[in-house]
Design goal:
Layout lengths: L11 E5 L4 H13 L1 E7 L5 H12 L3 E5 L2 E7 L11 E2 L4 H12 L4 E5 L10 H9 L3 E4 L8 E4 L7 E3 L5 H11 L5 E5 L7 H8 L4 E4 L2 E5 L8 E3 L4 H12 L5 E8 L6 H9 L2 E10 L2 E9 L7 E2 L4 H4 L3 H10 L5 E2 L13
Parallel strand pairs: 1-14, 2-13, 5-6, 9-10, 17-18
Antiparallel strand pairs: 2-4, 3-4, 6-8, 7-8, 10-12, 11-12, 14-16, 15-16
Helix pairs in contact: 1-2, 1-3, 1-6, 3-5, 4-5, 7-10
């Protein structure tokens, strides 16, 4: 049994966190549809990422851990085979939505399902654009949730504006667009995290990014590469807040992904009064990476406006802890999307 006792005095620490889950999903996905052998370093062994690995294994991709790296032996888009059973995405919405984009372009029928929580999450957001591209995709419950059935192939590019800023929806469309005839353009009401666009470029794909709009050319082949996944900022967030709310405390978190499309927690905690220093800054596999030094202080309440939602969506729950321990009132605006995650956050 592990006993967790409340902090009674300032603390110091120097830690690393597991690999970024969002980047890992995309790394496995693109390595699986690229040609050649990719090596992925620092791939999290968590259940969500394991669901994506398992799904591509079920489609004939050889994926094995060898030493410090996971080796993915890709055979291109046409190397994917029809799964012999329904793909179980577990609790992973990212797995289901990214696979929807992949399978929309494959000339076979497949089904995606998940646990009770995933069956409540809105999938009409990917059904609509993928159907508009020519995929025969439907909810077997007829209400826009999993399980999904997809008859893929015969896609054409579209010009699509998403109703919300969602990296998962955007990624599904881009993955389908890579397999489609012609150009595909996706525009969002606000800029969501851009891991997919960076990953496409990393695997040799051609993608154009203009503020809230992304354009991609269809029928692109991707090529294997090595990927080092940075530490997960969402996992680091808990240690950041623990230090931030305890004056005199300090934690250094090594090798953390600091992509500006999802670094809202750094800005919010800094505005509240924590000291956050980024050192050893560099770019790895197209992603900004740094060591974070977080020093606690006397936090003050702040207003966190709707412009922060896309950059901070996964960190609002732990920021609520910081807000509860800060002096004054903190207001989070337009966070209704939190109701549609793996739980009603």
């Amino acid at each position: 049994m592990k006993r967790i006792a409340p902090l009674t005095k300032p603390f110091r620490g120097d830690i690393a966190v597991p690999g970024d889950k969002s980047i890992a999903h995309r790394a496995v996905t693109f390595a699986s549809v690229a040609t050649g052998t990719s090596r992925i370093f620092n791939l999290s062994a968590g259940d969500d990422n394991s669901r994506t690995v398992r799904a591509f294994r079920e489609m004939g991709v050889r994926i094995v851990r060898e030493g410090e790296a996971v080796h993915v032996y890709g055979n291109g888009w046409d190397g994917l085979r029809a799964p012999q059973k329904t793909i179980d995405c577990g609790n992973s919405g990212t797995t289901m939505r990214l696979l929807s984009g992949v399978l929309a372009g494959r000339p076979f029928t497949s089904r995606l399902d998940g646990d009770a929580s995933l069956r409540r999450r809105p999938m009409q957001r990917v059904i609509e654009p993928l159907a508009a591209m020519g995929a025969r995709i439907k909810s077997l419950n007829t209400d826009g949730v999993a399980p999904l059935e997809i008859e893929g192939g015969g896609l054409h590019g579209i010009d699509y504006r998403t109703p919300i800023a969602s990296a998962q929806v955007k990624s599904a469309i881009l993955l389908a667009g890579l397999q489609a005839e012609g150009l595909t353009r996706v525009e969002e009401p606000a800029r969501s995290r851009n891991h997919t666009e960076l990953m496409i470029r990393g695997f040799g794909g051609d993608v154009s990014i203009e503020c809230r709009s992304v354009r991609i050319r269809g029928r692109q082949a991707l090529h294997a590469r090595d990927i080092r996944i940075p530490g997960d900022l969402s996992s680091a967030a808990f240690f950041m807040v623990a230090a931030a709310v305890n004056p005199g405390s300090q934690v250094i978190i090594r090798d953390v992904g600091c992509n500006p499309t999802r670094d809202g927690i750094i800005e919010v905690l800094s505005r509240m009064g924590a000291s956050i220093e980024l050192t050893n800054k560099r770019v790895e596999t197209g992603e900004p990476v740094a060591d974070l030094r977080v020093t606690g202080g006397e936090l003050k309440g702040v207003d966190v406006g709707p412009e922060m939602v896309a950059r901070t969506i996964d960190e609002y729950p732990v920021l609520a802890v910081a807000a509860a321990l800060a002096e004054g009132t903190t207001v989070f605006t337009d966070v209704k999307e939190l109701r549609y995650k793996e739980s009603d956050r």
